[in-house]
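Our consortium's second objective concerns turning raw sequence data into structural hypotheses that experimental partners can test. To show how far this objective has progressed, the report includes one record in full. It was chosen at random from the queue rather than selected for favorable results. The single chain below, 341 residues long, was entered without modification.
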Amino acid sequence: MTAIRIVSGEYRGKTVSNHSFTLVSGFQTGAKGGYVTVQNDGTFPNCPSTIRIKVNNISDYEMVSGESVTAQHQKPVVVAKSAETEEQAMDRIRERFEILTDMTKAAIGGDIRAMIVSGPPGVGKSFGVEQEIEKATLFDKIAGKRLRAEVVKGSATPIGLYQTLYKYSDANCVLVFDDCDSILVDDVALNLLKGALDSGKKRKISWLSESSTLRREGIPDSFDFKGSVIFITNLKFETMKSQKLRDHLDALQSRCHYLDLTLDTMRDKILRIKQIAKDGVLFQDYDFEPETQDSIIEFMNTNQARLREMSLRMALKIADLRKLSPDNWRRLAETTCMKAV
């Protein structure tokens, strides 16, 4: 892996100086200036595994030739700044989802083989991924061709997983598993998934049991998997209590990129809702005035302890009630969206 030493940079309001990281992608310019994308080596806990360090230009970093990051002994100089404002927090959250979009594009392009995305329900993990998949398959749909990507939702049996992996085993194919956590608790399915995520040059998947289903459909008992996999889950791998499951999850993490969106606090979830609303996406189908949008979010913030969940879905449920009854929506929301006292 290529190592990079940050001479002068910044990440989430903290100055980073004289510290080495594993490089993911080189210098790029975005709406807020230049940055390099690197792997988080633990310097920034509770942050994504892949992060963007802000740098002004290429003179603010240097490539470390022939030297692994683990061989570096420089200690980072991290200078804490003022407490994070809401705007800074929303920028931080937005950055996580921008990284998710970039990594999804890389999976579609075949530049990365596999990625696991972890985060709480209802924060939009699937939305951005599905948008990119939709773009990638648009011309296939227009041309009437077999789609090279599929989003699989819900439960998946081992033999169903094997069939799906075979169907999308070509190098240009992408499989997205969304809320298919049953795969993680089934040893056979989990081993198939490990095979698809293997870090070796060849990923061979095998089904060694007799199966009339596979025989009937002409599916071989082994094949090389060359596609990409994105696994989206609500589970937080680091907090799993089962040691057996932890061992399996650690094996999965070692095989692929792991992006933890780390929206673990109620404040972060509320700010994620604010961020999507501010970007003009959350309530775009409702034709609400800004004051109306603010009133819905303020209602959620005030009643956060009683709401059944703090999520984008809940914001849309309350928006439906606001549209249905502009004068009585709060009472309706208290009745249908809150836990009983």
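The partners drew two points from this record. Residues 86-108 form the longest helix (23 residues). Residues 66-82 have pLDDT under 50 and may be disordered. Both points have been shared with the crystallography group to help prioritize constructs.
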